[in-house]
Specification:
This protein is an alpha/beta fold. The longest helix is centred in the middle third of the chain and has 23 residues. The chain contains seven helices and eight strands, in the order E-H-H-E-H-H-H-E-E-E-H-E-H-E-E.
């Protein structure tokens, strides 16, 4: 069978929600509606590593973007992204199309259009850790920031797409006369 030569790159938690902070999962395993769309388009899928899991483990607290925006975390992101960027370069050099990199809006690491900042540290039950102090900011997540820098350094251009997991869960599609129609919310 002939290869389609189209690839999509997905944030880790889209294929594996188990990497998220305990209590933040909004689906049971993989974001089926999104993943199925790519599979039905015959795209190959590359899963990005989860920087939060590889840096802090599975039993971590939820953190905001400003808490992850630290030189050690940025360095970690770059280190785990180097093999991914090498793979992107190899695919592009061999004539494959990287259709898009799919990010998760709101994530402190993988957000694209927005993320959240505000926690300033301290005890979990303190005023500084109060979720009411968290604010939405129009910034990429730290991991996506580092990915964009690495790709630019290599002269690789890609398209970024952001999903809102809650809206994605309420999405459904129907095949009518061979054409896919998608509704959301």
């Amino acid at each position: 069978m002939k290869r389609k030569r189209k690839i999509v790159i997905l944030a880790h938690c889209i294929l594996n929600v188990n990497s998220k902070v305990e209590g933040l999962a909004t689906y049971s395993g993989a974001l089926k509606s999104l993943v199925t769309d790519y599979i039905n388009k015959d795209y190959g899928i590359i899963q990005l590593p989860c920087p939060e899991t590889t840096f802090c483990g599975l039993q971590r607290w939820g953190m905001s973007r400003n808490q992850y925006d630290h030189p050690n975390y940025r360095r970690h992101c770059r280190e785990i992204l180097i093999p991914v960027v090498d793979q992107i370069r190899l695919y592009k050099k061999s004539g494959y199309a990287i259709e898009e990199i799919v990010c998760v809006n709101g994530s402190p690491s993988c957000g694209l259009d927005f993320s959240f900042e505000g926690f300033t540290g301290g005890l979990v039950n303190s005023e500084a850790a109060n979720p009411d102090v968290v604010r939405k900011v129009q910034k990429n997540g730290v991991f996506i920031d580092e990915l964009a820098k690495l790709l630019k350094e290599q002269g690789l251009k890609v398209i970024y797409k952001a999903i809102d997991e809650k809206k994605q869960l309420n999405k459904f599609s129907l095949n009518i006369n061979g054409r896919r129609h998608t509704w959301c919310c």
